[in-house]
């Protein structure tokens, strides 16, 4: 995690400050109580948690001021018994927020059938991905769950971009990307389905059927999951040599 301004980059080198910064950024400028921030940073908060939190806020404010005093002024304190903090930033100033915004816009275009624009949007979103999300941050289970959700979104965007490429006629060239996806996240049926489609459309029927076998074994033995109806339908389309059915298989993601 780092702050950038005018070509100058300042790393956030404290795990606690990184965690605080991430927790505030993910709230998109909304007020966050001290209690919620403590819950985001510690599973078992120490007695000094509130004092530690104030110290982290002070350090974050100094760091922001060293990069851009205007941004530092946007870190505001709300006084009172249930006081807290808010960091007002524009989504375009935060890579991960802009990533999520572009991903949603591209998903809308995909649902409405604007394939070319959807593909461009997914590609633009992935250019902003700097993952793994939350790397080097102090984080409780609560904040870690939010980081995992971002990681899952990144996998979904990668799948949707491949889906678009398959609709546009690509096949063999996306197979390495898909092998990487199923290696990274073998529990995602969608990635397996895309790999089956890519193999079949590239003329590798045996590869598609081998992928089905590996997928069902991995999903059942490692994760206790049965194939969904749409995954079974794809398998049937491959067995029936139904190229249109394979190419236009519904994306489940």
UniProtKB/TrEMBL annotation:
Protein name (Swiss-Prot/TrEMBL): BTAD domain-containing putative transcriptional regulator
Signal peptide: none
All copies of domain OmpR/PhoB-type, residue ranges: 1-89
Superkingdom of this protein's organism: Bacteria
Positions in coiled-coil regions: none
Keyword DNA damage attached: no
Protein keywords: DNA-binding, Transcription, Transcription regulation
Family (UniProt): Belongs to the AfsR/DnrI/RedD regulatory family.
Species for this entry: Amycolatopsis halotolerans
Known DNA-binding region: 1-89
